[in-house]
Amino acid sequence: MKTTSDLSTQIPEPAFTRFLFADTRMNVVWTLLRIWLGYEWLHAGWGKITNPAGVWVGEKAGVAVSGFLKGALAKTQGDHPDVQGWYASFITNFALPNAELLSYMVAFGEVFVGIALILGLFTGIAAFFGATMNTNFLFAGTVSSNPLLLVTAIAIMLAWRVAGQWGLDRFLLPYLGVPGAPGKLFKHEPRSPQSPIPPTA
C-alpha cells in the first residue's frame, strides 16, 4: 500500500533554468538588469516627487492621477476596448475617489522600488511591486515602456536568488532567511539535554 510520502514527488528543475535563474555565474547579467530597472523606476518616481506643479506630491496631489484615470475610462468604448469593464469599475469606485492617496503611493512607490532594486535590497519583493504597478498601468490602457519593464521585473522575480547577490541581499538574506528557510536571526540552537540531578542520599 502506497503512503502519502510515496505519492508526493518533486519535478526536478531543468539544468538550463537552474543556470539562468539560480547560478551565481549569471550575477553580472542580473545585476545589470536590476540596476537598469531600478534606475527607470527611480527616475520616474523622482520626476513625480519633484514636479514643480505639485500635481503628484503637494498642494495639487491627485490632479495628475485623476487625469490619467479619466483618460483610462475614455478607453472603455468599442468592441475591443483598451480598458476592460471590470477595471473601469475599479477606477470609478475606488481609484478616482482615492486619487490623492494613490498619487502619493505611486510617486513614492516608484522611488522606493527604484532604490531597492539599485541597492539589491529585497530584490524579488521590489521587482514584484514594480511589476504590480506596470500591470495596473497596462490595465489602464497605457502601453509605453510598461511591457518591457514588466517582462524584466518578472525575470528578476524568477532570479531573485542571484539577482541581489551583488547587493544588500548578499548579507540580508542569510541573516533574515526566506519563508520556509529561516536565517540566522530566527534560527534557535537546539538546547543540549540537561544532565539529570543525582538523587541526594
UniProtKB/TrEMBL annotation:
Q: Where are the transmembrane segments?
A: 111-131, 137-160
Record keywords: Membrane, Transmembrane, Transmembrane helix
Coiled-coil boundaries: none
* Major localization class: membrane
The listed locations are:
Membrane
Q: So which domain of life are we looking at?
A: Bacteria
Listed GO CC annotations: membrane
Topology class, membrane: Multi-pass membrane protein
Q: Which Pfam families match?
A: DoxX
Name the record gives this protein: DoxX family protein
Report the source organism: Deinococcus cellulosilyticus (strain DSM 18568 / NBRC 106333 / KACC 11606 / 5516J-15)
Q: What is the lineage of its organism?
A: Bacteria, Thermotogati, Deinococcota, Deinococci, Deinococcales
